[in-house]
Design brief:
Length: 394
């Protein structure tokens, strides 16, 4: 039965974790997967999460089934975080939000929904994009194409190419846009870019799908949702996938959400009914634990403040590691100052696949073969080891 099944290639990001775990070198460093480590090199358990956990355990709640669309107070809190508590869309009940299995789960629900109910066939992702976007949408049955985004010469945005490519897309193409902290490049759009993109998607009748997995790692929780709020204010229909994996350090709990902006409360009701069928036929209903913790934090002003301060600390620590990298690499023949201008967890370092290979084999430093490194895994103890190794391989 299984004799003809071919061996699949290792996942370009999570596969690195497997290789890293199997590496017996004591001084190995994992800059592959997008995970925030603290100054001591540990994945933090946030204080706000710890407090919510204590409350949850003390309540001794039974492990019942959740509603198909998840915890209601969680879904509502997600909406406020993304669209703003005072959004007219929320007042008019035009937004549908369902709890999902992380941001990836939200993307897959969205993909299935577009395929089944909107006859979607084409999707466009940035070049480059998160490694899993292409695989996820092609597995869901879409033709996946690229739109220009990154300019390798300037380490910045290829603005002209971006706008020209978006304008050339056929109507009804689903366009995946990174809401903030572009993964993998760390090159973000400014407010005027977003305004222009909004004009294009309206004029060309494209379907925007904003993927925002790093809210709070750019400028602030509120500012990072600028694009979502801008699109919302225009009244158009669009999709948003969001995640608390990174911002709550809840990776393994799979806490995300899919939100759809519709034209009316009536539209929203029908959309929700179908989305629930998509969920039910995939995994029935979502898990309780992580979403319950997030809901407790987001709905309690004191815990919210604690969380937002902790997130600020993470964001600022990453920025200081960027500056440290730039300082350590100042003597290199090539310019690395762009690392301090990028934002979010990643730096698209410009290292070639061969150089990344050499980092792994010679120094036990793991990075994605595209040259993406996770700056959030650096700390004052390992940053010099990493930059010294980079100076050796380039
Ligand atoms: C990443 O890009 O490293 C993260 O989003 C983790 C993942 O699922 O790939």
């Amino acid at each position: 039965l299984f004799a003809n099944i071919e061996l699949a290639p290792r996942d370009p990001i999570l596969g690195l974790n497997e290789a890293y775990q199997a590496d017996t070198r004591a001084n190995k460093i994992n800059l592959g997967v997008g995970v925030y480590y603290d100054e001591q090199g540990r994945i933090p358990l946030l204080k706000a999460v710890q407090k919510a956990e204590a409350e949850f355990v003390a309540a001794g709640a039974p492990h019942s089934y959740l509603p198909i669309d998840g915890i209601g107070s969680y879904d509502q809190a997600v909406q406020k975080l993304l669209f703003g508590a005072d959004s007219f869309l929320l007042a008019e009940k035009r937004v549908v939000t369902v709890q999902s299995l992380g941001g990836t789960g939200a993307l897959k629900l969205g993909a299935d929904f577009v395929k089944q109910f909107l006859n979607g066939t084409d999707v466009a992702i940035s070049n480059p994009s998160w490694e899993n976007h292409r695989a996820l949408f092609s597995t869901a049955g879409f033709n996946v194409r690229d739109y220009s985004y990154y300019d390798a010469d300037t380490h910045g945005l290829n603005r002209e190419g971006l706008f020209a490519d978006l304008k050339a897309l056929p109507a009804n193409t689903l366009v995946i846009l990174h809401g903030c902290c572009h993964n993998p490049t760390g090159v973000d759009l400014d407010t005027e870019d977003w305004e222009q993109i909004l004009d294009i998607v309206q004029e060309k009748q494209l379907i925007p799908f904003i993927d925002i997995a790093y809210q709070g790692f750019g400028d602030s929780i509120e500012d990072d949702a600028f694009a979502v709020k801008l699109f919302a204010a225009s009244g158009i229909n669009f999709f948003v996938s969001s995640s608390f994996s990174k911002s709550f350090s809840l990776y393994g709990e799979r806490v995300g959400a899919l939100s759809l902006v519709t034209n009316s409360a009536d539209d929203a009701q029908r959309v929700l009914s179908q989305l629930k069928r998509v969920i039910r036929t995939n995994y029935s209903n979502p898990p309780i634990y992580g979403a319950m913790l997030v809901s407790k934090v987001l709905n309690n002003p004191e815990l919210y403040k604690l969380w937002s301060d902790e997130l600020k600390g993470m964001r600022e620590r990453i920025k200081s590691m960027r500056n440290q990298m730039v300082a350590n690499l100042a003597e290199a023949k090539q310019d690395f100052s762009f690392i301090a201008k990028q934002c979010g967890m990643f730096s698209y370092s410009g290292l070639t696949a061969d150089q990344v290979d050499k980092l792994r084999t010679d120094y036990g430093i793991y990075a994605v073969s595209t040259g993406r490194i996770c700056v959030a895994a650096l700390n004052t103890n390992n940053v010099k080891t990493v930059t010294d190794a980079i100076l050796q391989v380039i």
